[in-house]
Amino acid sequence: RPQTTPAKRSRSMAQKNDVRQTLQASILAALRGVTGEDQLTVLLLDDTMRRVVSRCCRLSEVMADANITLVEHILAPEAKRAPPAMAAHLSAVYLIAPTESSVFALEQELTTRRRLYGGKRHILVSSALPGPLRGTLRVLSAGGALASLREGVAVEALALHAGAFSLDRPSALRRLYGPPPPLNEDNIEARLLQGEDEAGGERAAAVSHAAEQLAKLCALLGDATPSVRYRARDHPVSKALGVALVAATPATRAGAGGEASGGAGGEAAAA
Fold this sequence. Notes:
Elements: H1 6-16, H2 19-32, E1 40-45, H3 47-56, H4 59-65, E2 70-73, H5 84-87, E3 90-96, H6 100-112, E4 121-125, H7 131-142, E5 148-151, E6 158-161, E7 164-166, H8 172-177, H9 188-194, H10 198-220, E8 227-230, H11 236-248, H12 250-253, E9 267-270
Parallel strand pairs: 1-2, 1-3, 3-4, 4-5, 8-9
Antiparallel strand pairs: 6-7
Helix pairs in contact: 6-7, 10-11
């Protein structure tokens, strides 16, 4: 029986903790789940997933390892898409983020260009869809426009290098810690109808999104029960994010960790 040397174990651990390779493997696995070697497939990306994929995968890797024939942008006009003679033989895989703009673009794509691609259409969404957006895609699926719909297939993170990543949210600092935007004629009606502090709503959404993405990335990297420490006298968002991250881990969701403040499901503790 071959023995595993410390050097081999070290290399194996380094590869497991490589952010770029981890994100790449998860995306390619999701694509392989809906593509086949005997079919021609076009991959369509929105802006978010185009940045994610381009940071962790080379085009040659996507085409060779995931059986992708062509890569296009979901907002590209028909003039910049595959020619009709080729498109008639292509199946389509849409890899998008769960945003209103991406789902709207997808809806337009499937309702106004139903004959653009002649094969099956598969939808892969990076994270869980909000209720209304899920309903939109369910309607399309029930109408026969989709062959499959999967959520939570990727982490919306940019691999900066082997040991670093970004959640690609330039507005996160403002949304987490900033005051509400000033009232003006564009937002006053919406804020009065909502009956809530807009900054609070944006902050909760930003905390939830960051926690979900970090929990998924931790699980992919082999740390399914992360420990989170924050300064006891720091901004309340620090504790909220720590507790949300622990609550979002698979172990906590499965009930193995009990309370989000500690246990097998991770730990969020003040320092």
